UniProtKB/TrEMBL annotation:
Single GO molecular function: GDP-dissociation inhibitor activity
Positions with biased composition (Acidic residues): 571-580
Annotated protein name in UniProt: RAE2 geranylgeranyltransferase
Organism from which the protein derives: Chionis minor (Black-faced sheathbill)
Record family assignment: Belongs to the Rab GDI family.
Subcellular location: Cytoplasm, Cytosol
Length: 614
């Protein structure tokens, strides 16, 4: 691939269109070196890897944006026909607009122009980090957050109020989306970080948090009786809520207090351990609206498949995460979830790790006697030896995965012109769970991101929908989209539709869920080859962190997993191992090794300039 993170990646708008086109075409990777088999010895055998990515299926993208202004479309270099956009036509528009339009940053204040610079990925991590923080603090960080060693610091600057009222959203055309395409950072997988989750703890412990900033999820929403409502979470929210009566407030607080230490009161739930959590809630003297809030917006569990204990554990986890960094349990990384893999890659690069893009592997080389993997052969015909090999599930061929049964995740990404619940504060990050219409169907998790998360352009919202698949992504998710959003492109629409946010662009796709598969399910894998899964459908990131730590401990049982890195000033490099003139490192006391390392890993001449200045 030519991007970081695999199925965890984030894309600009034009980058996403290219990704859509690539996956719709499903082209095989051609072997650039035909004589690589000459590298295999007589006592060796090969395990061929997959030549195509089959983890993404049923991609459908649509443009609902306003096409009235022909001048706008011409300016963007667009084709004049834009009723329903396929990736190929839209991609041409995106590519042309990047060539013909003036640079976005030239027309924006300095703080706002930092995001497009960051997207080019041509600066050292330290410089990017500094610019990210400057952009966020000066521009739109009313709730932005930076992870520290033991706490997160909330930005104090309030976001500037929008000139357009919530009742009259500004008209956004497709050509505007294309021109501002670098303002978008669209995640393939939609997740949030629990404030006391494993990933937050790991980011703080490993100090990878220095490379990222975060924004609080500002509200939890519920969809009930055809309306979107805000759910009170904290004690203050509960008692300030106008939706609940005084009796309901007391009921809710009493039940949530019980959930925090439910283990101390086994007599209250033991009789219901074999029941669903929904059935248990119905016995707790809670009104229907409270049961709905707890089930779908606090515990966020299935009505039919979640046991009482699982529901109590989920509720307790939610409550324990409240108040650490804000009124909700969740954080979202600025510039998208795809920043997280890149942050770990940055720290890895500081200590000599190499991440190769556009570098495919033909096969694993296995010793016939020991049964262990000795090397890989890449598409250049180069043989690379190692003691351990970690491979993502999607690279394994069908012959290895014959006994593996995969699940699927249904995903949709929408660009809309307003929020699903308009309030006085426009810069909101919201999470909404829509209950299933039919019993047995999965609930749909919706995360709505505003422009201050640096994932979409001003006056738009980026909406992610996720659920376990039962059919194609469009069949699973379009009914929910139709309930909450206006898909009508005609000028004459009913009043009810006018009140809904208008969808400007949408994409649906199914993603393979390879989480939870035992290694023994794969046929013929050597003992020193470890398989990691792609993204799982859960809201948090605990599955990925547990999997990474498990693989690490199997390889290095006596080592600490992701220990805190030393301070840059404490690092002493061996002059015999590292030649400054080759790597850009300098061992002079005036230079910090860490920043120099980042400079050497960047794809520009910053390190050379720094040496010249010294």
């Amino acid at each position: 691939r030519n991007y970081y993170g695999g199925n965890w990646a984030s894309f600009s708008f034009s980058g996403l269109l290219s990704w859509i086109k690539e996956n719709q075409q499903k082209t095989d990777i051609n072997d650039e070196c035909e004589d690589w088999r000459k590298l295999i010895l007589e006592n060796e055998e090969v395990i061929s890897l997959s030549k195509k990515n089959t983890t993404i299926q049923h991609i459908e993208d649509f443009c609902f944006g306003d096409q009235d202004s022909a001048e706008d479309v011409e300016e963007a270099g667009a084709l004049r026909r834009l009723p329903v956009f396929g990736a190929s036509g839209a991609e041409e528009v995106a590519q042309e607009s990047e060539k013909e339009c003036l640079p976005v940053e030239s027309a924006l204040p300095e703080a706002e122009s930092q995001e497009p610079e960051k997207a080019t990925d041509t600066e050292p991590a330290s410089a990017v980090e500094g610019k990210d923080k400057e952009a966020t603090s000066e521009n739109e960080s009313s709730h932005s957050t930076a992870l520290g060693e033991s706490a997160l610091e909330l930005g104090k600057t309030e976001a500037a109020p929008s000139e357009i009222s919530a009742q009259e959203p500004k008209k956004i055309t497709y050509s505007q989306i294309v021109r501002e395409g670098r303002r978008f950072n669209i995640d393939l997988v939609s997740k949030l970080l629990y404030s006391r989750g494993l990933l937050i703890d790991l980011l703080i412990k490993s100090n990878v948090s220095r490379y990222a900033e975060f924004k609080n999820a500002t509200r939890i929403l519920a969809f009930r009786e055809g309306k979107v409502e805000q759910v009170p979470c904290s004690r203050a929210d509960v008692f300030n809520s106008r939706q609940l009566t005084m009796v309901e407030k007391r009921m809710l607080m009493k039940f949530l207090t019980f959930c925090l230490d439910y283990e101390q009161h086994p007599d209250e739930y033991q009789d219901y351990e074999n029941n669903t959590f929904a059935q248990f809630l119905s016995t707790r003297k809670l009104t229907p609206s409270l049961q709905h809030f707890i089930l779908h917006s606090i515990a966020m569990v299935s009505e039919t498949h979640c046991s009482t204990l699982e529901g109590l554990q989920a509720t307790k986890k939610f409550l324990q995460c409240l108040g650490r960094y804000g009124n909700t349990p969740f954080l979202f990384p600025l510039y998208g979830q795809g920043e997280i893999p890149q942050c770990f890659c940055r720290l890895c690069a500081v200590f000599g790790g190499i991440y190769c893009l556009r570098h495919s592997v033909q096969c694993l080389v296995v010793d016939k006697e020991s049964g262990r993997c000795k090397a890989v052969v890449d598409h250049f015909g180069q043989r690379i030896s190692a003691n351990y090999f970690i491979v993502e599930d999607s690279y394994l061929s069908e012959s290895i995965c014959t006994n593996v049964c995969y699940r699927q995740i249904s995903r949709a990404v929408l660009i809309t012109d307003q929020s699903v619940l308009n309030t006085d504060a426009e810069q909101q990050v919201s999470i909404l769970t829509v209950p299933p219409v039919d019993l047995g169907k999965p609930a749909v998790c919706i995360i709505e991101l505003c422009s201050s998360t640096m994932t979409c352009m001003k006056d738009t919202y980026l909406v992610h929908l996720t659920c376990p698949s039962t059919k194609t992504a469009r069949e699973d998710l379009e009914p929910v989209v139709q309930k909450l959003f206006n898909l009508n492109t005609e000028k004459e629409t009913e009043n009810e539709e006018l009140e809904k946010p208008r969808v400007l662009w949408a994409v649906y796709f199914n993603m393979r869920d390879s989480s939870g598969i035992d290694k023994n399910s794969y046929d013929g894998l050597p003992s020193n080859v470890y398989v990691c899964s792609g993204p799982d459908p859960a809201l948090g990131n605990d599955c990925a962190v547990k999997q990474a730590e498990t693989i690490f401990r199997e390889m290095f049982p006596t080592e600490d997993f992701c220990p805190p890195p030393p301070n840059p000033e404490d690092i002493i490099y061996d002059e015999d191992e590292i030649a400054p003139e080759e790597t850009g490192f300098s061992n002079s006391p005036e230079t910090k090794p860490e920043s120099s390392s980042e400079e050497s890993s960047s794809r520009d001449s910053t390190a050379v300039k720094k040496e010249d200045e010294e």
